[in-house]
Amino acid sequence: MKSLTTIALIFIFCVQGFTQSERFVVYDLTLSQVVDTTAAISFDNNVIQSTTGFHFGELYSWTPMSNDFPSEQFLYETSLFSHRIAAGKFFNLEDFPLRATPKLMQMVDGDLGHYCSSTMIGEAYILTAAHCLYSNPLGWILPDSIFVFPSFNGGQPNINLPSTMVEKVYVPLSYINQENFLNDIAICKLAEPIGLQTGWLSIGYHLESSFFENKVFHKSAFPAFTVAGPPVNPDTMYYAFGQAEIQDSMRLIIPNYIGAPGESGSSLYYTNNVNTYTAYGVASTAQNFSHIRIMPSVYYPIVEIIQAEVTTSTEDLAVDENRITVFPNPTSTFFEIQNSKVNFPAKYEIFSTQMKLVRHGIIADEHDMINVQNLPGGIYLLVVNDHKIQHQTKFIKK
Description:
single chain; mainly beta; ten-stranded mixed β-sheet; nine-stranded antiparallel β-sheet; 5 helices; 11% helix; 36% strand
């Protein structure tokens, strides 16, 4: 028989409107395995709306986005959203918020290919679609590596902005268990906190449908090809804006608009160009370009995951002091790894600025020299995987 205290606590819990959040399954790409499932947290479902904070980034430059609806000549067929516009023709892609919407690319058997779109939502976290990472009945559909390129355009990473790789992915347990396919939302932890430079958008939810009325929403993404509308270049960032509407409690749609492969994971965000840059939905399906709304059940655990990272940032900085470095740098012939915690022997890969794999091999110990004398001059990314941690740094070949 339950005690009066227990009954009283249950009563208070229910009256106040608290409920349990979604749980997330955590997959570590460096270990190639599931490493954790987050605990459910309680939240007050009487709270109508909430947002995290956004950040301009250390570069600070920004571009104001239009708060006017697109004119008829720019509309996509019979929708109230503009057709896709090559973003670089109208914006400086190094400006916020465009630089905070990276392109994801996948490495499979040494070949780099198109993947999905994403949005920076913290120092070292991006928002994307769960179906980019997990598929029923196939299970995890992760490539060997996922690269994150802010302001990718014209087939090239932006040399003025940092790039990185995905370290861990977080997918809702209900999505994996086929309990709720509408939880097509995921986040990824990055190997490097590039958000400090690029900045990030806030994420938010609003339970009142009227909030979404008469607002201009924005989208920047990387479509691979289109099934309707003007053709696109898959190596280019595209931008569109206009009116969206609520379909139901889980979906924010753009009626009469067809989403494109590659746009999965991109955000539908709203800004007033002053104190709000908030993503409210994640691109999921093509028909009526459906976006899964960020709802409290996923919002609060995502916030907790990101805040947990912030609270350990001091420890992370201590680790960063021992990050991989190479000497000499720049080099014209050989270099060796110094001041690292690499567990040798370890596998290494060298990528060009186009993220083409140009060299790979095994490093036997800390005195083993890596020969780069036959590489053309330029900047390269060195990735070292010791089966426990993935280390990376950049070096210059003279």
